[in-house]
Automatic annotation (TrEMBL):
Record's protein name: Methyltransferase domain-containing protein
Native organism: Sulfurimonas marina
Location of the Methyltransferase type domain: 40-123
Record keyword Hydrolase present: no
PANTHER family assigned to the protein according to its UniProt record, in alphabetical order: TRANS-ACONITATE 2-METHYLTRANSFERASE, TRANS-ACONITATE 2-METHYLTRANSFERASE-RELATED
GO terms under biological process: methylation
Length: 227
């Protein structure tokens, strides 16, 4: 299990709240070396992955359960969007009607209701994979400072689960995103979606956390699972 690290500075005036997710998408695609022709993207969102693919392909199918995101996703004769939930076993019966040679998923599977079941369903598609999953190391210091339990699985838990289904590479990357002040930091948390819309603290507790948070950056930890 290889562990790397990266660092970025957050520029609030750019108005971008998906800085880390964009970096994750780029790295995830860097693991795809054979230019697959028929691609599935689980949790495709607004199209962060398809917009970064720089090779010719025959079909790209994006799946998401957020209709608003699917409306923003690029579409064409070779790009299809499916409204569906990767937690739903029935979805994979539909997907097996296609002939995919690669499954991608970037910054989505951390919200799986049962990651082992999702991995089992992905395995049933019998194709190569490149998956990026945020771990409990994301916002680690924030959780400790606020005495909150992390929402996500740890890298060790994800590693153990994926070993049951895949004989592939497993890499962990730690990112840091620096902010000018804690107000900008907490605005990012609220807007980015990385926290899963968690609202576990009162206004008073949030103010206390902002005053006591010891760092000028947030931590992110991502597990990459790829063929």
């Amino acid at each position: 299990m290889r562990i790397d690290s990266e660092f970025s500075k957050y520029a609030a005036h750019y108005g971008s709240y998906n800085v880390i997710q964009e970096k994750v998408a780029v790295k995830l695609l860097s693991h795809v070396n054979n230019k697959p022709k028929n691609i599935l993207d689980l949790g495709c969102g607004h199209g962060a992955l398809v917009e970064k693919i720089d090779w010719e392909y025959n079909r790209f199918v994006g799946v998401d359960f957020a209709k608003g995101m699917l409306e923003l996703h690029p579409k064409s004769k070779i790009i299809e969007c499916i409204y569906g939930d990767f937690n739903d076993d029935g979805l994979y019966k539909t997907l097996k009607q296609y002939n995919f040679d690669y499954v991608l998923s970037s910054s989505a599977l951390q919200w799986a209701q049962d990651l082992e079941k999702v991995f089992s369903n992905i395995k049933s598609l019998d194709t190569q994979i490149s998956l990026a999953i945020f771990t409990s190391g994301t916002f680690e210091t924030l959780h400790k400072t606020a005495s909150l339990e992390p929402l996500l699985l740890s890298k060790d838990e994800i590693y153990t689960i994926q070993k049951k289904y895949f004989d592939v590479n497993f890499e962990v990357v730690n990112y840091r995103l620096e902010f000018e002040n804690t107000r900008e930091m907490f605005r990012y948390i609220k807007k980015s979606g990385v926290s899963g819309s968690r609202n576990a603290l009162s206004f008073k507790e949030t103010k206390k956390l902002m005053d006591e948070y010891p760092l000028n950056y947030l931590e992110f930890e991502v597990a990459y699972i790829y063929s």
